[in-house]
Amino acid sequence: MTTSLAPAGPHADPPVTLAGRLGAPEAAARAARLETLLGDPHDPANPHGIAALAEADARRTPPAATEELLAGVRLGAEFVPAGEGGRLTRADLLAQVLRPVFRRDVALGFGYGITSLFAAAPVWAEGGPEQRAELSAVLLGGGRASIVHHELAHANGILRDEFTAEPVPAGGYRLGGSKDVILNAARSGAYVVYARTAPARGPRSHSVFLLGTDAIADARAAGRLTPLPRVPMNGMRGGLFSGLRFEDFPLPGHALVGAEGQGVALALRTFQVNRCLIPSLAVAAADTVLHSAVRAVTEGRTAPLARRWHKPLAGVFADLLAADSMATVSLRALSLLPEHVNVLAAAVKYVVPDMIREDLEELAGVLGGHGYVRGDAQYGALDKLVRDLPVAGLGHAGTAACQAVIVPQLRTLAERSWFRMPEPPPGLFGGGAQLPALDYRQLGIAGGDDFLAATLVGAADRLGGARSFGGQMAALAELAEGFVGELRELRTRCAALPSGRATQAGPGVAVLADRYALVLAAASVLGIWEAQDGSDAFLADPAWAVLALTRIGSRLGIAVPDLPEGCLAQVLDELIRRHLAGRSYDLDGTELIR
Fold it and tell me: Of the candidates 265, 321, 362, which has an alpha carbon nearest to the alpha carbon of residue 528?
């Protein structure tokens, strides 16, 4: 099968084929090509660089030249499953392809396309053949899809207000209501709407509807759809947000995605992918800020790096490796263990952005006055990411939603999973392993299983004999055992929680969820470190894992050993080496354009 598309500019790919460019080497090649096309982000004359993107941000307009480039490489095909003629096979490969975009501008990554995947997810999970074909045609043709969220507790602008779809006796629905803040509302060729179909609260209160290009045009022509003005946003690109008002618009029954009342379940299932992708892409954005900080304290100097910068720079580097470990494991688990990712996806969604936020505060101290020059090609990435990161994570509402997934599972995890589950397949951590394709239909929401806790316990057992080695291996063994001790304490406290809705009461339970999420971060680091095959000498060495786990342990307030001699220096040496070589600060160490 071949989907034939007309060329879309000077960078256009050949037609997307079902057989081609779907595996890991092909994804890496697409990412490298995109990195090259986007050019040096720090070049003031680059139309796709930080300065040009910041200028568009100040104008509250999309960066037309860069969006044209992304259309030319058919970025929308990355969000369409291979079975529908696109390139989407695995979530970790999708993140790899998107990272060059997010290294330059989080708003660009969200505004041009990734939210199209978030919108399309219910259709990939439960949509019928005609719905899948209709949405695929929009995305493969260079269009966008907007997700129209239902209202949530703790709602911010994006999550406030919702639409209602009242069933009509003769068949179909009547869509009504307004929502002020929708990303790309004025630019999308399809809307995926979470609308209330039952007045009472509960798991079957909402349904999902697909409004394609023709339906949108019909609603406008009939005067049933009114665009609402653009909304100024604190962060992201303000011009991308506007609203919609539907007034008594007739929806045919075939607009319903899946079954009536399935909206909440579809959100819980499909948001897992979003929650794993966003942290991975946030790591790429923070990577640029770390390079800026290293540049600020090394450029034009011949003397060794000042000692006062050793700890913050090496520490942030270790944090990014830890964050990438957790994000990578969660993305790979979507393919390998799709029925058991729900709790991990929620944990990574609020651990990684919080970790990066703390890291940005450290880097602000390193950058000093450089970090407050808005739009600067060399150092403006910090100011931009500080504003964009809260919007990307949906702020407090996003954190509350993730905690709402974890908290009800804590007692079950303590009673049935921790210290009982077997370890996951090694392919979860090994970068070269073949993984199944991501299948939205397989994603589960039951919870109750924790494969990463089993990894933590297993790694601690295997490291038990390393204490006699001294140095970094002894420190790693001590850290692993410390996190196992924290898990034991969590098991005791969580097993004593009340069952049912009472489990969600009180800030103390939220603290347990926070501590558990950090334990999962530590387990991810150990899993990634153990899986190293020696091809990357730095990652195979324990220094980065020791520093990363020490910082996670300090956040938890558990006892951590002193850093062994040479540990900080090894991480710092790799930091400088990657900066000089123009390589990323993630697990891949990707070659960048500098």
Answer: 321
Give the 3-state secondary structure of 227-279.
EECCCCCCCCCHHHEEEEEEEEEEECHHHEECCCCCHHHHHHHHHHHHHHHHH
| 18, pLDDT greater than 70 | no
Q: Higher confidence at residue 522 or residue 448?
A: 522
Q: Six-digit token pair at 384? A: 């931009």
Instruction: Return d(Cα 66, Cα 101) in angstroms, integer.
Output: 10
Rounded-to-integer distance, Cα 335 and Cα 213, Å: 31
Amino acid 361 reads E
Q: What H or E segment, with its residue span, contains residue 174?
A: strand 173-183
pLDDT at residue number 17: 39
pLDDT tens sequence across 530-549: 999 999 999 999 999 999 99
pLDDT for 153: 45
**3, 140 in Cβ contact below 8 A?**
yes
Supply the DSSP symbol for 88.
B
What CA–CA distances, in Å, run from 418 to 120, 412, 531? 35, 9, 22
- 215 C-beta neighbours (distance < 10 Å), count: 21
Measured CA to CA, the distance from residue 96 to residue 92 in angstroms comes to 6
pLDDT in the model for residue 370: 82
How, if at all, do strands 2-3 and 145-148 pair?
Answer: unpaired
Tell me, what's the pLDDT at 232?
Answer: 60
> Cα–Cα distance between 457 and 464 in angstroms, integer?
11
Identity of residue 137:
A
pTM greater than 0.85 (yes/no): yes
Residue 303, pLDDT score: 79
Q: Could you say which DSSP state residue 111 is in?
A: I
Better-scored residue on pLDDT, 14 or 304? 304
Sign of the dihedral defined by the CA atoms of residues 75, 377, 278, 560, in that order: positive
CA distances from 553 to 108, 478, 483, 494 (A): 34, 11, 8, 20
The answer to whether 355 and 556 have CB atoms below 8 angstroms apart is no
Q: Is 594 exposed, middle or buried (0-12, 13-18, 19+ CB in 10 A)?
A: middle
Tokens of 181: 């803040």
- Residues 312 and 465: their CA atoms lie apart, in Å, by 31
The pLDDT tens digits of the residues spanning 22-62 come to 688 999 999 999 999 999 999 999 999 999 999 988 888 88
Contact between 65 and 48 (Cβ < 8 Å): yes
Q: What is the mean pLDDT of the chain?
A: 89
125-to-81, 142, 207, 271 alpha-carbon distances in Å: 11, 22, 14, 11
Across the range 372-395, mean pLDDT stands at 82
DSSP state letter for 499 = S
